[in-house]
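Lab notebook, bench 4. The sequencing result for the construct came back, and we need a structural model before the next group meeting so we can plan mutations. Quick request posted to the team channel:

Model the 3D structure of this chain.
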Amino acid sequence: MTFLKKIRMKKLITILLILNLFVGYIGFGQQTQSSLANEIGSLQNMETFINRKLINPTNLTDSNNFMIDFAIHEQWIGNNKATNGFFLSGETGLSSKKCSIGLNIDFKNNGLWQHHSIISSIKYDWLINTNSKFELGLNMGFWQYRLDVSNLIYPQDPLTGSVYASEWQTIPRIDLGINYKYKAQSIGLSYNNMLTGTNNLTVFKGLILNYQNIYTVSKKITLIPEMYACLNSENTYGIIILKLDYSKRITCGLLYNTKNSSGFLISGIIKKRAKIGYYYNLLNLNHQTFNSHCLNLGFIIK
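Done. Here's the predicted structure in token form:
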């Protein structure tokens, strides 16, 4: 290993230690008592790996290729399925317009609750100089939810006697994001679900700060550390990710969330046109263990 590479590795280790201390502080020092309600309303670990434009719309691709992603995901407690769903996503860059666009369709069942959303995304780039640029992004669409009472024997509230509401409720969604890139580093800030009421705990509403750096270890190996600080009125916590990319064909990643969860991802590119990935997450909440996983298939249309 050359002297320059040793310096890079020391710098990487130092940054990771700082991020661990910072995220540990915001995660354990300020978060409220965990509950299933605010966990449902938390930023989903899966999105930080697989569907990042829903966290910050500036995460849209810069490539002129058309990217299509499909994912099936589920969560269970012991042998009981708690959540299941899927999403379909597409995005592409328009270099002549210095912008990128995307569309995401998501369906999810969480116990008796059903959710689905349709969200469009756009970002614009402003080149500052050869080493840096500024990005502005917008997610806009809607999400719907309802309580499915079709299989309930007694579809009534035991306290009031009223029938549970089963009609679809529609809420508009707007996310605004900014990002600054300097060489291999980037720092971004987004505000998610700007129009959602503060009492609605079924989606994350608040600020997300993220930092990413790309370290070239060799011609084929790249390390990508990333940190998210999630800030809202209900709880404050952090997520740390470390990804390793080999020859731009195979990606492995580890995730740690200060809300007592961790996960990993492995994905690969097949013949430069197809992608397949697997994600697994383990969450300990109120003395219960939640397991979740996701199978991701993607295609690159040139």
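DSSP finds three helices and 15 strands in the chain.
Will bring this to the meeting.
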